[in-house]
Design goal:
Order of helices and strands: HHEEEHHHHHHHHHHHH
Number of strands: 3
Largest sheet: 3 strands, antiparallel
Helix content: 55-70%
Shape: globular
Strand order of the largest sheet: 1-2-3
Number of domains: 3
Radius of gyration: 25 Å
Length: 324
Amino acid sequence: MASLWRLPAEIIALSRAKIWEEAVREWELDFIEKLDPGEGSESCLCGHSPITELCHIINKKTDSSAIVGSHCIQKFEKDDPAHAVFGNGPKIFRSVNKLLKDNEATASKALLKYASQKGVLTKTQIRSYKKDKGKRKLSVASVKNRIKCNNILIFGIAIKTEKAAFKRLLEDETFETTAGPKLIEYGFNKNVLTRTNYDFYKNIWNRAHSSLSVKQKKYKVDLNKKIVTKLKDDFIDDIGSQRSSSSSSSSSSSSSSSSSSSSSSSLNRSSSSSIGFDKERVESDDDLDEDIEMFNALEENATFRSKRKRNAIEIESEEESSEL
């Protein structure tokens, strides 16, 4: 592994200033990226490879850009000017990793600040999130809001590709995990999801599963099963080959070939068993579409009735005011 101390020299080489304290202050954290198995690999500017937690940095004076690993940033001392410039990167990743394990967890100040800067969450969402941050017990509405915001944070910052979203969905035996916007879009473009499926899922993807109605939960789970079943060939081979290539790097070419094929086949077997349902028992696409269309119609009628009731109240209020 390359020494960390190549990093200051590499940053200086891309900067106008040639003194470390001045050169590093020309830079800022542009955005972060988390890579999952099957998404390829990157190298840090210092030479450290592979890295999965990427901090993309940009020079404000020269527009030069570079990738630095979160792990490498953590090795700077706290009194080093680089810590003040890039130090939030590792903090953001720690908070993101916490949310990936528990979507009811609380996001850190660093993550909320980053989300605000990047427009991932609105000012209203940030304000509401911070208001409930220190409370031990949240209301049902506050929990729903937190999960909704956390899902937006997860898919707006950490899980940026359909492959990463598919992997997350595949690992959930209950199929209650949300597919996320990228995977929903991918499924629609691949004709796995119909327009009705797509419209339904886009309306509920960032909502907590527990907040959905019984019918909505069933629709969502059925769509997730459909996504996993029909898109597994698009993603599982890539994930399998990535794992097999990393595990066989120290083996001979002949053993590497057999290792790769067995790894790929075992992954396909495990994915098939994790699905845990009989395709014939799942509702047909037409039946599911009819149910979703009916549900959407009911929601539209309910919204229309609610608006009509509000309008009637407003008219009645205006009439009372005019009489006075």
